[in-house]
Amino acid sequence: MDAAVPAPSKRPWYTRKAVIIPAAVVVGLIVIGGIGSALGGGRSTSDAAPAASVRTTEQAAATTEAEQVLIIVPNVVGMDGATARTVLETLGIRVATDGDESMPVIAQDVAEGTEIEEGATVVLTLEEKPQLTLGQQNAIRSAQSYLDFTAFSRAGLFEQLTSEYGEGFEAADAEFAIAHLEQNGLVDWNAEAAESAQSYLDFTSFSRQGLYEQLTSEYGEQFTPEQAEYALTAVGY
């Protein structure tokens, strides 16, 4: 006969509930803590951001006035449009124009000496660019073609454009074409003289005096004495 297995002893109620009671207390604390966080936004009063300072109307107006920069408008009438734009924009003034900025400024809508805020706009009126006649257009193209082909003095190019054995342009159109090249930086007479001198030396021998005379003679290249001297220096004489 097997030995009797002793029945498990029953623990007192307070021993069996010893774990349950603290757990319930912990749950209660968590619930209470969650409610507190929800009501307080998860931050204590000491962690809340400080209220933003509010400026008075007088303070805001004083700050705005202090930040304004006033600029005295200069006189740019007579300058070409591009130069006038550079002058004004360097000062912090905006510029508006209504034409070709290579032409002179004939008026400005804000008078010289007027104080305006930085970033304000000044409107410039430019001289209207003249329309070229057909003769002037063709004379310019012809003059440029000759200079691209070989060296010319101013007088020599004028003769080539107007000669009955050359292009036969009206003298006024030829003069206009040459002036146009000069004003737009499309010709350098010193460089033309140097090129002419070098081409003579490439062809045959010349003394310094002989080359000078060839460059300046009315029957030769017709460069000015100053241009001829520049050319002689350039070729090594």
Automatic annotation (TrEMBL):
Record bears the keyword Lipoprotein: yes
Species the sequence originates in: Microbacterium schleiferi
Keywords: Lipoprotein, Membrane, Transmembrane, Transmembrane helix
Domain PASTA: 65-128
Transmembrane segments: 20-39
A Pfam match: Lipoprotein_Ltp
SMART domains: PASTA (SM00740)
InterPro entries referenced in this protein's UniProt entry, alphabetically: Ltp-like_HTH, PASTA_dom, WH-like_DNA-bd_sf
Protein name from the UniProt record: Ltp family lipoprotein
Presence of the UniProt keyword Nucleotide-binding in the record: no
